[in-house]
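Example (one chain per record):
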Amino acid sequence: DGVIVGWVADENEIAHAALWVDDRLTLLPTLSGTRMSRAYGRNWRGDIVGFMFTVDREGPIPTLWASDLSCQALPSPQDYGGLVCGINNDGVMVGLEYLDGSAILDMKKLPQYDWISAERMGEYVCLQGSQTDLNTRAILWQGQEAIPLEELVTLNSGWVFTEALAVNGQGHILINAVNEDVSTFALLVPA
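Predicted structure:
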């Protein structure tokens, strides 16, 4: 549909969440005191997700920009913050939260996402994440409730879900999971 979300850097190399519609750039609004922001995903309704850092909070704030571009901070179960990577057309959001202060002092440690494909399968857009040594866990947001994804899985396999990257209209969630020294991508499918 000619729409892309992401971020642009200003002359001081500070990232600002951005929306491009047919080559026209719009900086997304932020909360008062925001010092940096990034947008990672968009659904067909026009809702955008990502994160921002503000001067009065140490960690990143998971953020939703509604289709009218109003900005809303989302909860994070831990005090260290998190970010939202994907949203489907039902408004279900997925991402990660930080379990310690590893992202607070060094914003360069934030996960970097490489675009793999704009190929759409329903509402599903696939992004690949390159996780650093951050201590994170995958989160699902339903409205204002943040739920660790491991709490929704009945099988105790020993895998730790470190980040959720995308969610489609059927509720399938692309995650990164770690078990001892092995890291892999997996697809969670609702029962």
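Caption: The chain is about 0% helix and 50% strand.
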